[in-house]
Predict the 3D structure of the following.
Amino acid sequence: MPITDFLERNARDYGDDACLVEINPELVDRDNLPWKEYALVETAHVRGYRKEITWREFDDRADRLAGLLIERGVRKGDKVALLLMNCIEWLPAYFGILKSGATVVPLNYRYTSDEIKYCLGLADVSVLLFGPEFIDRLDQIKGQLPDIRHSFFIGEGRPDFAEPYDEAVGGLPARPVGIPLDDGDDAAIYFSSGTTGFPKAILHSHGSLVSACVTEQRHHGQTRDDVFLCIPPLYHTGAKMHWFGSLISGGRAVLLRGTSPKWILDAAAKEGASIVWLLVPWAQDILDAIECGDVEPGGYGLDRWRLMHIGAQPVPPSLIKRWKRHFPAHEYDTNYGLSESAGPGAVHLGVENMHKVGAIGRAGYGWKAKIVGEGGQPVARGEVGELAVSGPGVMKCYYNDPEATEAVLKGGWLHTGDMAREDDDGFIYLVDRKKDVIITGGENIYPVQIEDFLRKFEKIRDVAVIGLPHHRLGEIAAAVVEIKPGEESSEDEIMRFSLDLPRYKRPRVVIFDEVPRNPTGKIEKPRLREKYAGGSVVARQINEPAQS
């Protein structure tokens, strides 16, 4: 079945129920309105700070867009790109593209003009929908996109090189277009996060997206009574596939445009959120705000919040232990996945396995997982190898890149590029990205292990460990350390804290700087390597302090 069937069922069975809410606290703050009391403020005075649609309205909007695309000559298999910030129009547009038979191509809202041009060309996009935040970037390349037949602008302040979306769909009927779809049809092209190079185009089928719905609901037990607070960007498979749990159950979701701890806690309270998916930096910010007295969680009324889960990156066990101290009633879960596997769920910890915090879990519902060596053969338990997964959500291919496809799809298994190990109970622990492993003096160093250790130091807000060239050892480990606001530290203090690590794992260089992360929370290590791989940094190598 195509994934659009779930939307049509919800519109038929739960048509008058609210399904999507958008909250934009920046509008409240901009107008100096009392955010803590926003529910009491007249809507007219905050100019759309909160928007809401029902399942029927969602489906109607999708049908109108599908009709528009078909009217403009879009045919089954054509590619339609979506370049929007998180907003209430995002998901109806996504499903409208799917209903037309086209393949939807979500774009990262942080892309530069050149990256947008590259991705539009790589995916053979012929129609583009975009919002006001991208006018300047698109204006720079508007004459360099010969394959774009139609551009539609969603929002206010339309540029002259695009048609007004609302006017284009306004006169069209909200009725099904009748394009036949099945599991094997192309549905979406997502782009890799780019943490290891320029993005690759990842092609998924309708069946792959449906499997993500089923896996997510099986893992977290969503019902129509659940409310999912969604903060990460919808262009990424992580946020989208977690929202698929709301789609399959007919539950409500809240799109929060902002990551302030106060905004997250207040939105969760006022909207009655029961499930909140956070990235590591946001969870860290909430805990820091609580512990420094900026927020008092007991004053928010978070009675319905039952599940906090984190994904998109390795999760420090120390962070979850802190979270449980402040929120002991919350269940915790983590999912592992990647865009090539239709997002999170290929490996899943499970709320019943809190005693295994630090692991990413075992193979998720409908999935298989194994850890293999260089020759593709399984390694012994406890040994480090590459994680490979197999299941219904594996991509069809890297679009227009058969060589890259062949490198990762082998015998029905997706080789993830992540190094991992399996314990005696069958739980999998991430060790690091294959490309991030540091080889120093012939020893393999896995940066995640050092990062997890250093995050235990109370002054450190965030840390990234990268390899820097060394004339004798080949590479040495450098720790890029971001200190908490209001704290001070020194290289010597960090090195003394590191003495409990085995000698070969201790960072040999400490750099105080901001740790860059992409919108999905992953550390952008290529940026750090590009910035710090020169000899001037290596010259600052620190001698270890004497053991005291």
In short: DSSP finds 17 helices and 27 strands in the chain.
